[in-house]
Structures are given as structure tokens and as C-alpha cells.
Amino acid sequence: MSTREDIFRWQQSLAAERNAAALYQAIADAEPQSAAAQLYLKLADTERRHAAHWEQKLQAAGIAVSPVRLQWRTRVLSWLARRFGAGFVLPTLAEIERDAGAEYAGDADRVVQGMARDERGHARMFRALAEGNQLASGEVARLEGRHRATGGNALRAAVLGANDGLLSNFSLIMGVAGAQVASGTIVVTGMAGLVAGACSMALGEWLSVQSARELYGHQIKIEANELAETPEEEKEELALIYQAKGLPAAEARRLADHLLSDPTQALDTLAREELGIDPKELGGSAWEAAGASFLLFAVGAVLPLLPFFFTHGMSGVLWSAGASAAGLFTLGAAITLMTGRSALWSGLRQVLIGLAAAALTYGLGRLVGGQLS
User: Fold this and answer.
1) Where along the chain do its domains lie?
2) Range from 209-218, 253-262, 268-277, 302-311 carrying the lowest mean pLDDT
3) How would CATH label the architecture of 4-143?
4) Exposed/middle/buried for 221, CB within 10 Å: 0-12, 13-18, 19+?
5) Helix axes 150-178 and 183-229, enclosed angle (nearest 10)
6) Number of Cβ within a 10 Å radius of residue 233
């Protein structure tokens, strides 16, 4: 006899499998590489097979199966994959599959255990792709560079950059407002905090990326010298790398010999495979990274400041707190694209932390401001 908890769990599993199938289908449709597209189509078929199992369970229990409804996360990830490529969402896909395998782990049903193995296998594959590994097939070289995991990190950095700007300037403004100074003083302080924080973030990002570029350039020079002095050793190292990725030894040696036979692509291949570096990008532009950091921090920092341009006193404090709470909730929910957790819980958690920090600085401002006055 099926319990209410069983039916609810089956419905949740059905929704998750349907959304996974739709996501992989969307990625396959957007993937220009035929081998990679076939991989995502195969994953979509697997998820559809899983969904069919839960449909049958529900129908056997006399429960009507509702039409497919795509979750907001599925829609967003599908759009990101179409816009920026599959590599942008690979870290998130690994988390989704890992969580799905964990949910099935406690079920004794033999079919469900098979699903759990499928999901764990998918998670391992996505983690390997996210770390820069490629498919174990004859098209390894052609697929090189298609699945770097910079996308998930870039999305995380964007959310965290805006969150830093919002939370730091919100706390700063509340501290000054707690001292009961004039609205003009609050605005000047908020603007100073925005500019100072954004410049600090931009400079830190510029130094980080520029240092990485210089390090990568140095490593590529070393690799070029080794290629010129000991080409056979480099060829053997490359063959071992491809064997570690799953190619048979003979095929790995043939692939390494072919790739290093062309001087124009030999160094490029070694840099990508041995060092994990794209020689054309070297980690990206330091100026672009600095500009993005400045902008993201400023966007977050301006939110708690805006109300004080139109109102003052306690009204300004309340409007600032409300605007900041809305921004914190949005950013907390956005990070669930990577974590796969509840958007409501993550958003509320972010709001509670932000309001607690602001309340602390507001109280400190009242205390210090009263003493100074």
C-alpha cells in the first residue's frame, strides 16, 4: 500500500528527472560539437527512462501524472548553456546529479539503485569535464577546450561580487544612519563606500588576473624550452595524459605523435593538456576582470544608498533596509543555481545575515554617535 509520503516522493523524483531531461536536451540542441551533443542526448534519454519509472509507479497507485512543468532553475540553466556554452553550467550539473544520486541511495528497489548508479556516473563525468578532462574517444583533441569550468566560477564570482557591495555598503550606511547624522552626510558616506569598495575590488581582481597571466606565460616558456630540448619525453608525457583520460595506450601514443608532429599546434596542445592553460587567453583579460568587479560591486552597493536620495531620517533607513533585503534575497536565491538548494531558504538566510550585520552597525552608530554628541 502506497503511503502519502511515497506518492509525494515519487512526484518529486518525477519532476526532477523530467527537468534534468529537458535541461540536457536544451544543452544538446545548443552544442555545436557533434560528439558532445550525442553525449547530452544520451543523458537526456537516461533521465527520460528514469522519469518513465516514476510515472508508472504513480499510475499504478492511481495517481494522475501531471504535464511537464519546468522549474525556474532549469529554464535559467538552459538559457545560460545556449548563451555561453555547456561549459558554463558544468559545475552546477555535477551538483545536480550528485544530489539526485544521494536521494536514491537509501531506496532498496533494484531499479532505483540502478538509477542511483546512473546519477553517480553522470556526476563523475561532469566533474571530470569541469576539471578540464575530455571524453575518452577518438575526438579528444577536437573537443579540447570546449568544457572548461570557468562558467560556474564566473557566475559565482558575479553573485558574490554584487553581494559584497550590497552587504558592505548597507552595513556602512546603517552605521552612519544610526549616529543620526544629516541625510547629506549619509549619501556622501555611501558614495565614498561605493567608490572605495569598487576600486578595491577592481584592483584586487586586476592584480590576481595579471599575476596569473604572468605565471602562465612563464610556464608556457618553460614548456616551449622542454619541447625543443626533449621532444620525445614531452610526447611520452602527453600519451600518458591521454591514457589517464581513458584512451588505450596505442591510440594515446598515436594521438600524441600526431599532435606533436605539427610545430604550430604542439606547444598549444602541451599547454592545454599538461598545464591546463589556453595560450590564447592566459586566464582572460585583467582589465576586463577589473571592470567587471568594479561594476558588480557598484551595482550591489548602490541599492541601499538609493532611498536616501529621495527621503531621509527613519523613512530612509526603512526604505534602505527594504531595498537591501530584496537585493539580498535575490542574490541568495541566485546562488542556488550552483548549489541546487532551496531558493527560498537560501534567500531568507541571506536576508537574515544581512539584516543582522546592519542592525549591529546601526546599534554601534547610535552608541558612538550619542557619545560623540
Assistant:
1) 4-143, 150-210+285-372, 217-275
2) 268-277
3) Up-down Bundle (1.20)
4) exposed
5) 150
6) 11
pTM: 0.55
Grid cell, residue 160, equals 558574490
- Cβ contacts of 21 within 8 Å, gap of 6 or more: 44, 45, 47, 48, 51
In a 13 Å sphere around the CA of 28, the CA atoms on its Cβ side amount to 16
- In the block, cell 593538456 appears at 273
Closest CA to 237 of 225, 223, 216: 223
Q: Give the distance, in angstroms, between the CA of residue 262 and the centroid of all CA atoms in the same chain.
A: 36
Type of residue numbered 71:
Q
Residue-wise pLDDT tens digits, 238-258: 776 666 566 777 887 887 777
Question: Tens of pLDDT along 345-368?
Answer: 888 988 999 899 989 999 998 888
The residue length of the chain stands at 373
Residue of 158, 174, 111, 119 lying closest to 294 (CA atoms): 158
